[in-house]
Amino acid sequence: MKLPYTEELEIQYLNRLFDNTSECYKFFWFQAVINKVLEGHDVITYEELINEMIVDSWYMVTEYHLNLGPRDTLERLVHRLCDISGLKSSEKKEVILECLQNCTDREVQQKKRTLTYHVPYRLQAPFMEKVKGEAWNVSERQLIQNINREERLMYYFTALDGMQTAICVQPDWIAYIHKNQEILKGWLQYHMILYLQKRNPSVPGISDKLQPPHERKLEKVQKYWKLLMEVKTVHEIYKDEVITEENISIDHFVPWSYVAHDEFWNLHPTTRGINSRKSNRLPDWEIYFPKLCQLEYFSYEMIQANHVIREAFELCAREHLNNSEIRGRIYRKDQSLTEFSHALEEVVQPVYQSAKNCGFRSWIPEGARDE
């Protein structure tokens, strides 16, 4: 994926920005620079850029549990801030930024400073002809002076002043970023996805986990279960509560924040209150998977027996059953409960276990009936 060419800038070097990337910092630093430039800034402090990096990585670390690197300071910094602040994984950007601006925690401050030691300088290495080899092994102050003598860089540095050190983005680069912002963002995301897939090989849907999700559309699934509720009273699986039209909510058995999809085999009805309390945790497998099978088998039987429900199922399937092989295994005709449960387990259990391995916590609702 190549970037738009311009005679004014060294775009061939920009294309090499993420060569040999072993840590995530370059992605988030460059993304922070783009974000701040698009907001109208040309002089940006380390403090502002590091705070932007924390916000940009917040959701993928706290909600999606993505591994950013083998010894990643940014990931540890996000976890530290989450622990001491009580902020939610879904917290708005402005709230996280305000928390960072008011945070005096020593560990947070140390980790923020650590993030500035290399990436502001190393990011532009492909552009530099004089800063090679041992030239990097000097003091931070001397390194800034050496880099500022280079020509045609994207940005230069003010005098070293801790977190108030600033980069000065050059006018030609500001114009290029504004003109090609969508292409740059797509190019950056492409490289970030490749990096994160290597670090998280068992995690599905990496491309959907670079930012908080858009509102999910589960209206067809909800309508389908409301039809079933007209045939028979439906109890949700966690506390055996009766589901009504007023309190119905569609739950992802394995959390959406892991699977990043709305496939029918992972969806079932519960109540709004229980779904909210469950959040992004994993239901205890031994207790709740057999109950899920019972509920889903009732649905399976009704698909076979009732043409109205079968039609509603087919509407759901167009949007929420995107793997024909899985559909054939789970929803083939004339299965017993044992056969159906085995087929469902073959699909759900590996995904469940992978989510557990990634750090998603197990959950049993308070006061639940274990029957």
Short description:
With 371 residues, this protein is mainly α.
Explain what the structure shows.
- A hairpin with an 8-residue loop joins strand 2 and strand 3.
- A 3-stranded antiparallel sheet has the order 1-3-2.
- It has 17 helices and 7 strands.
- The mean pLDDT is 92.
- The protein is elongated and about 75 Å long.
- By secondary structure, it is mainly alpha-helical.
- Helix 2 crosses helix 3 (46-62), helix 2 packs antiparallel against helix 10 (181-199) and helix 11 (219-231) packs antiparallel against helix 15.
Features:
elongated; mainly alpha; 371 residues; two-stranded antiparallel sheet
Topology:
Blueprint (H helix, E strand, L loop, with lengths): L10 H4 L10 H14 L4 E3 H17 L10 H13 L7 H10 L3 H9 L4 H4 L17 H8 L7 E3 L8 E4 L1 H9 L1 H19 L19 H13 L16 E5 L3 H4 L7 E5 H7 L3 E2 L1 H21 L1 H14 L3 H7 L6 H21 L4 E2 L8
Parallel strand pairs: 6-7
Antiparallel strand pairs: 1-3, 2-3, 4-5
The number of helical segments is 17
β-sheet strand percentage: 5-15%
Broad shape: elongated
Please bin the fraction of helical residues. Answer: 40-55%
Query: What structural class should be given to the helix and strand makeup?
Result: mainly alpha
Would you tell me the overall average pLDDT?
92
| Order of secondary-structure elements | HHEHHHHHHEEHHHEHEHEHHHHE
Q: Main sheet?
A: 3 strands, antiparallel
CA(first)-CA(last) distance: 55 Å
Number of strands: 7
| Oligomeric status | single chain
Strand ordering within the main sheet: 1-3-2
Over the alpha carbons, how many angstroms does the gyration radius reach? 25 Å
Report low-confidence residues grouped into runs of 5 or more.
none
